[in-house]
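Subject: complex prediction, re-run

Hi both,

The earlier run crashed halfway through, so I resubmitted it with identical inputs.
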Amino acid sequence: MTRFDTSGAPYLQPATTVSQMMSRVLLSLVPAAVVYTWFFGPGLLLNILVASGVGLLAEASVLQLRKKPLRPHLGDYSVLVTAVLFAWCLPPATPWWITAIGMVFAVVFAKHLYGGLGHNPFNPAMAGYVLVLISFPQELTRWLPVSGLYEQGPDALQTLWATLTGQLGGGLQWDAVTMATPLDYMKTEMARMTTMPEIKAHPMFGDFAGRGYEWVANFIALGGAWLIYKRVIRWHIPVAVLVGVLLPATLVYVMDPGSNGSPGLHLFSGATMLGAFYIATDPVSAATSPRGRLIYGFGVGVITLVVRKWGGYPDGIAFGVLLMNAAAPLIDHFTRPRVYGHEE
Amino acid sequence: MRDLHHSRKFHGGLKLDGHKQESTAEMVRTLPLPRRLLLPLASQAGRAAIPVVKAGDRVLGHQEVARPGNDRSCSLHAPTSATVIGIQCLPVPHPGGLSGDCLVLEPDGREEFAQSMPSLDPANLDMAGLVQRVRDAGIAGLGGAVFPTAHKLATAASREGLTLVVNGAECEPYISCDDMLMREQAYEILLGTRILLNSLGAATAIVAIERDKHQALECMQAAIERLGDERIRLEQIFTIYPAGGERQLVQVLSGKEVPENGLPTDIGYLCQNVATLLAIYHAVVHGRPLVSRITTVTGSGIARPGNFLALLGTPLSVLTEAAGGYTDRASRLIMGGPMMGIALASDEVPVVKASNCVLVLGADEARSSGEQMPCIRCGECEQVCPAQLQPQELYWRIQGKDIAGADELGLGACIECGCCDLVCPSHIPLVQHYRYAKARARTARTQREQSEVARQRFETRKQRLEKEATRRKQRLEEKRKTRTPGEQAPKAIKGEIDAILARAESKRQDGKQGDGTS
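This time it finished cleanly. Structure:
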């Protein structure tokens, strides 16, 4: 007589796995990474390499310390997603130790000290990014110019050298090769009372939101749309973030177009798209109820715009995400849907 | 025929691979008479049935062999003429893999039947008469929940203006017994429906069938036209699991939700499974008790899947053998469907009233246990929950041993459909956690109730004692008051008391002397 296994229902194979979700996130970023490299050189890829290596090493060490099995936790690719998103926020040619410091902080402090995968209240990539942003303000604002514009950026070898040593070889000066991002430029010029039409006359502004950057944003949005189609993420948070940026941006723009960036500029420059589709959608640190996710995303968007307009930093996605992370449990508490058959 | 595909819908649910065609290629097959029939006395609802026969008795087919233990329990009948071997503790279909007392019968092959109950006139059958007949016939809900039908009907009897829902949805994958029944006995199902409509005095019966069951839809439509009863109509519903769950089906048909801790009858709907209605028809018109049912035997672990008419008590091994035996891939044996069925260790357990399906999953179809990751709060579970719960929050509370907290979030509304489990990327066995927590919550509630009763009893006793004490005090007071101070007891009495005291004193002295001498 055959004996059968008696573990409980349901018996069908689960539809998906954590590693499948995470690898789809990584896969969907490939086109945008190619576009980024096309416009800004291989700096991003170097950042990703450093962040991934350090991230995996940090993850493995902490898992060892916590006496957790290595294979399933390294194999869930969550640390790689953190690494790629963190690396994406850094300027290309960021010295490797800065990347490493941020990544170690993200994995060890923001993730594992709170209990590891699934237990971190704050988005690890953003925690790591904000740490290096306020610790290394100079290095973190050295953005490279978009290719094809009058300023010539460092070539691949020079970028590698800069990543390894923090110095530009071949007698190049940082001031000569770096160029502000459109948001950064706008912020500085606004402070000098330049009007928006004058600012936008600068060739870096491209078609609508900054040469190069707008195309990266397009491809990030495309990758995000694919993730929604594949049901890796839901539409709620991305849409809410975009509306959260767009609504106040439109409002201030309509009131005073002379001293405000256009809504389109806000939507397609900086980290708006990356934040909406990839960072705010990190399920672990976001709100979980459908209505909660709308509120959460909207909050991220509004805070981003507030930081951009009135804050000290040109972009605010990281702050928006971290602040709303803190609010997520409260949002969930107040947005629970009515249970079937229960009174309102 | 109305198509509700695009209209009202319940929250969540899953589109699952039906796997129905494997078992619906052939007509319902009959089985050889098994060597032994095992009738478990305990049913899923109510108290265990009480045997009314003893070892060595010869019983006839359709003869009652066990009577209901209480009004939520069901009587059992001998499926065929047989000798009673006795009551033995044997493995039964139970989620915990327990054994239970079974009445063991050995069929004698003569197939002699007891005289059937008198046929009742379906046109003039009141609710009380119908309930009694259904109880006598031992009918329970054949959709899988096996709630005693008599009890369900009795609670519905007092309701006015009910709509009868004939549940032919059969939403769980692989199961096709209701589908086959509707194809082969559509008219008899409707006759059963009409009996219930008449007795209930209900104005409408809605036959609800999933839209991908084309043949069943055709057969039922044809039967409705043939019967020509205007009260009965057919509605196609979309194919989404768990549309056949009572609460979801009512929501699909009416847009209304069954209130918390309530029943569909609270919002005017009474659901009956198609096979149950057929059993009612046979009980009323032919006086025949429930002794058999159609069971689907399917899955890639079965060589020749199909549907079988099985006598209750038939060991599952007889069914799997009749279906060509196991294939090399067979890895899980399940009674019921792949979402809510009961995992069995062996095929020696019998077919019971709840056995709508015997599913043998292949190793490649079944989930492998283990490999659980932490919850990443993705909220997929929340998206598919038909009870609109936040399964992730329930899980966190249960993880934190906060059963009361989970209960507060609506744990009781969970129907254990398994949708959340199937979409969880971390492969957390959520339903098992909920089942455990529900049991704990139930125990806690019972304990609370019991301690409340004990507390009340204690309070009442204390009050009673206090009242008695004050009354005694009062009486004493009153007595003291009626006697004026300084008043002496009457002389006669005083003399008597003195005499008694003297007698007692002398007795004491005697006793002391006695002690000294002996």
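The longest helix of chain A spans residues 43-65.

- K.
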